[in-house]
Each structure stands twice: as C-alpha cells, then as structure tokens.
Amino acid sequence: MNSNSNVFCIIMAGGIGSRFWPLSRSYKPKQFLDILGTGSSLIRQTYCRVSRFCSPENIYIVTSDIYKQQVQKHIPEISENQVLLEPMRRNTAPCIAYATQKIALRNPNACIVVAPSDHLVLNEEAFLKTISTAIDFASINSALLTIGIKPSRPETGYGYIQVGKQAEKRIPNLFKVKTFTEKPNLDLAQVFLQSGEFYWNSGMFIWSLKSIQEAFAKYLPDIQSLFTESHSLFNTTDEATAVASVYSQCKNVSIDYGIMEKADNVFVICAEFGWSDLGTWGSLFLNSKRDEGNNAIVGKNVVAHNLKDCIVQMPADKLVLIQGLEGYIVVESDGILLICKKDNEQEIKTYLGEIFAEKGDQFA
Amino acid sequence: MNSNSNVFCIIMAGGIGSRFWPLSRSYKPKQFLDILGTGSSLIRQTYCRVSRFCSPENIYIVTSDIYKQQVQKHIPEISENQVLLEPMRRNTAPCIAYATQKIALRNPNACIVVAPSDHLVLNEEAFLKTISTAIDFASINSALLTIGIKPSRPETGYGYIQVGKQAEKRIPNLFKVKTFTEKPNLDLAQVFLQSGEFYWNSGMFIWSLKSIQEAFAKYLPDIQSLFTESHSLFNTTDEATAVASVYSQCKNVSIDYGIMEKADNVFVICAEFGWSDLGTWGSLFLNSKRDEGNNAIVGKNVVAHNLKDCIVQMPADKLVLIQGLEGYIVVESDGILLICKKDNEQEIKTYLGEIFAEKGDQFA
Predict the structure, then answer these.
(1) What ipTM is given for this predicted complex?
(2) Under an 8 A CB cutoff, do B336 and A320 touch?
(3) Which end of chain B is more exposed for a tag (fewer CB within 10 A), N or C?
(4) CA distance to partner chain B, nearest, from residue A335 (Å)
(5) What does the pLDDT look like over B116-126, one tens digit per residue?
(6) Does the beta carbon of A356 lie under 8 angstroms from any beta carbon of chain B?
C-alpha cells in the first residue's frame, strides 16, 4: 500500500442524515449509527478503512461543530486539530476547500483522498486496490479522480458517470469522464445499466493538492480566495473565528457541480467493492441480513407473522407484534414511530417537512 | 321508571379483556378503559346507566379481587360490601350465583338485572324503556329474560337468539326463545340477518330472585348448594374464606350454557338501543368517530398519509408518521406495539398465547 507520508485523507462527516428519520435524528445523524448492526458506526468503519492506506495523523474529519464530541468519541485515535469544525452547512466544496487548506499548510506534495463518512464498503481489499491505483495515478498526473461503481441494478437514487476513453493502457479501469448525470428515472436507469458505459457516482475523490488547488482557482476562485486570505490564522487560536467569517461569505455549492462537472481533467476509476451510500431504507435493506420472509428485522422482541419484504427496526426491549405486512418500513427510535411503504420512502422527506413546520424542530 | 326497592342489579366486571391487547392488559382490562375516548370508562358508563333504574345501594359489582381498587376508584359511590370479589375466574354462572345469594339475604322479593360492565349503549332512553318492560314482566312471571338486539349486519362475532311465539299480546317485542345459537359463520349470519327471526345475544338478563333460584336448583344444583350451604358466613368477616372455598369447588360454566339453553321458561325482549359488546377491534371501529379516510385515529401526534379504514391508537405525546396502510390496526400502549390486519384480529389471541408462553406473563 501507499501508506506514505504524502497521502492524506478528508472524511466528510457533516451530514444530518434526515433520510433515516426517526432512526437518525439531527443530534445523531447516520454516520454515528451502527445502522446495519455490525458492531461499529459508519464513521468508525470509514476511519478504520482509510487508516489502512493513510497514517492516522494525516486523516482529517470535517464535521459540524455540534458533532465534535461525537466524532472524538467514535474516533479517539485522532487529535483535536484533525477534527475540522464547520460553523454552518455549505455543501461539499467549502468543506473540501477548508480541509485542503489545512493540508496545504502541512505538505505541499500531498495526495488527497476524499471520502464520505457514512457509506458502506463490503470488500475492503478491492477498495484498497482501487485507492492504491488511484493515488498512483493522481500523484503524477494533473487529474481529478472520482470512483465509479459498476451498477448492479437500475438504481434511481444515484447519479451516474458516463465513461469516455481509457486514460492509460496499463490501467484498464481508468477512464476520462464523458458526462456526469443527475439521478435518472427508472427507464433511463435501465438504459444506463444495459449500456455498460455508466457507473454510479460514489462521491469519493482522489487528487493531488496541486490539482485540486488549481481547480479551485479556476472554477471556484471566490471560495479559494476566502480560504487563502485567512490562512495565516489557521492553526492559531483564531482559526474558528476566521473559518466562521469565511463560511459566512462562502456560497453553498457541491464539489460535483462547482468543479467536477466543469473541469476537463476529470477521470473515473471504475470498481466493484460492495459499495452503498446507504442513502435510503431500500439500500439499507439490500445490505442487511434477512429472514426467510425476506425481512430485515432488528429488535429482540419483534414477533412477526406473515411478514414479507419488510424493514423493521425496534428498540431492543420493545415488544412488537406485527402481522400481515408486505413491503413496509416499520421503525421506532427515541419514541417516534414510522410506518411507511418501502416504495414511498421518497415521500417521507416531504411529510417530515410538514411535521417540523407544524410541530417544531424538537422532532427533527 | 321502576326505581323501586325491589330492583337490584348485578354488574359483571371480572373480564380480563385480552382482545384489546396491548391497549387492555391484565392489570387494566377493558371495563376500566375509556376505550372510545368519551371521557369515562365503560364500567363507569354502565354504573351510571343502571343507576337510572336501580338505587345505588342495590347495585352489586362482581369482579376479581385484583380489580377491587380499580372498581372503587371508578365507582366511588358504592360501598365496599357491594363489590363482590371472586377469588378465581369460574365464568358467569358462579358469578351470578354469588351475587344472587347476597341479594337473597337482603330482599326475597328482588327483581334482578344482570349486565356486563364493558358493553356500549348509545341510546340510553331506548335501553331504559326495554329494561322497564322487562322488569315488569319478570317481576310477575316465572321467566328468565334475556335481551336480544336487532342485528344490523351479518356479525360473526356474536351468538344469536331465535325468537318463537310472542309471549303477551300487550308486549309486541317479547317472545319465547326458540333456540340459542353459537357464533355463526358468515353465510349463516347472512341467513340469520335476512330471516328476521334472529337477534344478537346481548348477555344481559332480567329475572326475579325466585325464578333464578329455581333455575339454579334445577339446572345447576351443585353450584346452588355450595352457595346456600355457606350463606350463614356471608356478610361476616368470614365471607372471603367461605367464597374461596365455594369457588374452588365450583365448576367453570356460563349462565348461557348452564341455565338459559336448558330452561323452558326463557324469554327474549327484542330491542335496538345502539348496543355493542365492543368485543373486537372491528366493533370498536364501528362505534368510533372516523376521519375522511374512514380511519379511527386516537393520538394527538399521529400524522397519516394515504391511510384508509385503519384503527390507530397511540399515546398522546407520541409522534407517529404512518403512510400507505389500508385496513390495519396500529395500537401502542405501555410500550407495546401491535400492527395487524383488521381481518386477522382473531389470530392475535393465538399469537399472544405464543408470546406469553415464550417471553413471560409480564406482557399479558
């Protein structure tokens, strides 16, 4: 592995995970949950995974200031100055710009891996092999690399990347990116799947410090300037104040929209390593252990009869008798109960908006 | 009204109401619940209803010794010696024999109305009129009277009474009973409904002390002897011990099976007064206020979308988001959750048996 001192990692952990309400709540978003019941939280799994190719002192976690203590509790190995606190949510571009600035102050030759904190990777060896190839390529090329996942179904919940020409003969799975697409409808997703040219956009990136700084300078110069102008205050007691000022002036923009879709040196490394963004109950279901009725049930005292294709998550001590449901999500957490058709889970967000508007944020 | 000193009432309140689990539990059975959310419990409603034709000091409540305090709390008007405590459950015949013995010691000319404590009567004036006619008839005839309810649907959850000849010209709705039937299947229930000869068996009885004592002597002489032999200990400090001894020797038998189906002086007074035994979630649903989706929802924080024909009962403070259910019962009480198809509610009892066997009686 390339566990050399130039390799850095940015773990993005600011998400509020409203999709898994009421299991995830604003005070305990998805990354801090052991959502599949494996014994460790998603952020802890991510940390352990990236520390196999990156020295622990080179790992930065970017999160909201309200989650600082949770990050430290889940990853006690890292020091306080590796937990970067965002004073407000401004999407992924400012998040990456902030961490990049911190890394720039330490190592001008850094090669950086950016990873979300709340995704699933089942095949860690395949993941590490992909990362290794990506770091090798990104270290010596002016390239912005993203990881594309070979689709296994016509998923409508992901963005897709269409591959263009192979970049190098010796790397069969690395291509120039032709287009990024938004989440498709089912018909289009089926076309994508059959074409063989489209890969799921995993939201993981690999690039050299130099490449990403050039890209920020070219495509998001405002954000770049805000951070470089304040950089003398970084690593001082005034960092938080400086960052607060920078963030208040930063626009809300994703790295995909702000840079990846505009730059002309964007590449994708295609891989399969049992990846899921665990972004929906449906994807959670696909990655959960199921019983003979194809139900994913968490909860010691759940008594089920004639149950099929359901996701049930209950507090361990709660007695629940469920009969005759097919294709439903039944979840209780912190005294809030959700019962919803799996097919309609996209509507939950709308309903929640109404609930929070009417009943107040204590339920968020 | 016949509110004369000869009229007595026996309210049977020993039921454990397992049908409404988890809303009713062994420590708070149905009669003590305000199950329709009207503002008073079913036993309180029953007491108020019968006290319109019966002096409060002539009302006896028969219940299990474990419910004594709950009875006194719900009906503070009556004195301790009017609450008769059964040391064990032996069905309705011993229950009625016990209270009858107590009444015999007070008034040999008593006319007695027997009523369950957990039924619903919507039209109290019609009910009182029926009772008045029944008392008039039972006071002067050697007759065992039951109340038959004009069926409004082919209900399979009730027993039926087939009427024979009209008893008296001046009372158009009072007939000799031809047969008692068990709960029919749906086909038979439809035949019953169309025939016009069949009425729902309400489980309410009216008879003179003399008539019921004669019937006990003839059809249940064992039970009769047990109580008369001990009657000198009644109304003494040894009553509980005597009753414990009697009950331990009594067989478990209903008044219907033990007397009504065998005696030849059984009459039925047919009536309509908005009656339900509230014996099933379905019957509860029929008697509840419903929203535009035909749902009966109890709970201030229940947010429902695309919900149809459902019964939802939730603790007031609990936030619940339910989407896309049709024809289900969703009930939570004391931390236990039930989700079940309305059509399958008969199966709940079986499931509960399994649960209690496996997980223990603390859930009963």
Answers:
(1) 0.75
(2) yes
(3) N
(4) 6
(5) 999 999 999 99
(6) no
